[in-house]
Write a structure and sequence with these properties.
Helix content: 40-55%
Oligomer: single chain
Strand order of the largest sheet: 2-8-7-6-5-3-4
Largest sheet: 7 strands, mixed
Order of helices and strands: HEHHEHEHEHEHEHEEHHHHEHEEEH
Radius of gyration: 21 Å
């Protein structure tokens, strides 16, 4: 087998030297504080069985989509899923993409045009940044959740079509922007707001509709990206917006046009998961209780100053240095808890962290125990 070019080998060696080399983890039976399966839907036997029954009842006995949605892959389950999603999210239209990454790359590479401007939060996800890099529009970042900095930029570019981009829950910090004030700013400067709701679906709102809808801003926000691989425990994503936006994406979003569609089984799982979301209020309440308990325990153990402020499922404790944060993660894993370190360069150097992901199925006992262990490993005492 031909060896890697030297420049690539050197880049790998540098990652190893910096204790930042990524490797695929092995499956474990540890207590889950790492996955995005916030409501436990990915392990739901009833969702699994109901999805199968739905496929049989609708005579969808095929393993793949067979082609892109514009050719042979637009099977009937897609129409049912998009109809259900528009109703649930009170949106005129929805377009399903194969993943949240595909949705963000498709949107930002296709919608903002040359001469337009994209203003994005500096902590926006890599998929948003990758889409922006493919765009012909100019782009500037504003300081994280800093609306004064955002307005400073808005003032500088009058008479320009501007897209303001943020997330309702940031994946590394778990915090949220002041969406009501951000939308007010956008209205003042006649701008278009785009919100990635990947980590809010299933978590915020009476039925887990997301933060935008829980604040009744869905009619003002230009586009929402709903990702199904987190709170819904399945796969895929949808962009919510006007019928015209959907038509535009079908015609110009390359990550939608030039890829094989999701299988009927994948899309049927989305349908079933949404139906469960409407009635899974016990799961959602237990998740809220667990978030509150986690925050109470942080206070009790004097850990609060180390954590990024968050009322979401994502709770990040800053432990600078790749070596130290990896060491503490390994100690927690050795005690039976699956907690993952987030290393630089994924986060800036000095902002390395342990990211705790909370779920409806975590017990209060497990939450208390893992934080007690964290306190022991960080402070060196029980």
């Amino acid at each position: 087998m031909k060896k890697l070019p030297e420049i690539l080998s050197n880049k790998l060696a540098l990652r190893l030297q910096n204790n930042a080399l990524r490797q695929l983890p092995k499956a474990t039976n540890l207590i889950d504080f790492a996955s995005n399966d916030y409501l436990g839907f990915s392990n739901s036997q009833s969702i699994f069985e109901e999805t199968h029954q739905y496929l049989v009842a609708n005579n969808q006995i095929q393993n793949g989509a067979t082609g892109s949605r514009l050719l042979s892959g637009n099977h009937s389950v897609y129409q049912e899923a998009e109809r259900l999603i528009t109703q649930f999210h009170q949106s005129p239209a929805a377009l399903i993409f194969n993943s949240g990454y595909d949705a963000n790359v498709g949107f930002f590479s296709a919608v903002p045009q040359k001469g337009d401007l994209i203003l994005f939060d500096e902590l926006c996800h890599a998929s948003i940044r990758d889409g922006i890099q493919l765009s012909n529009a100019k782009a500037y970042k504003f300081q994280h959740n800093d609306l004064e900095d955002l307005e400073r930029l808005l003032i500088r570019y009058p008479d320009t079509t501007i897209y303001i981009v943020t997330e309702s829950v940031f994946s590394m910090d778990g915090d949220t922007p002041n969406l009501e004030e951000l939308v007010r700013l956008a209205e003042k400067y006649n701008s278009y707001v785009v919100v990635d709701e990947a980590h809010a679906l299933g978590v915020f709102g009476e039925k887990g509709e997301g933060l935008v809808q829980s604040l009744q801003l869905q009619d003002i926000v230009f586009a929402r990206i709903m990702t199904f691989g987190k709170g819904l425990g399945c796969h895929g994503a949808a962009i919510l917006g006007s019928e015209d936006l959907k038509s535009y994406l079908v015609n110009f979003a390359r990550s939608f046009i030039y890829t094989t569609g999701l299988s009927p089984h994948s899309v049927a799982t989305i349908v079933t998961a949404y139906k469960h979301l409407e009635k899974a209020t016990d799961n959602q309440q237990q998740l809220k209780n667990n978030i509150a308990h986690f925050n109470q325990e942080k206070n009790r153990l004097s850990l609060k100053p180390l954590f990024v402020r968050s009322k979401s499922t994502i709770q990040s404790v800053i432990i600078p240095g790749n070596e130290r944060v990896k060491s503490i993660a390994q100690q927690l894993q050795g005690k039976g808890f699956d907690v993952k370190p987030i290393l630089s360069p994924t986060v800036p150097e000095g902002q390395e962290r342990l990211r705790f992901c909370l779920h409806s199925f975590n017990s209060e006992k497990d939450i208390s125990e893992v934080l007690q262990l964290l306190s022991t490993f960080v402070f060196g005492h029980g």
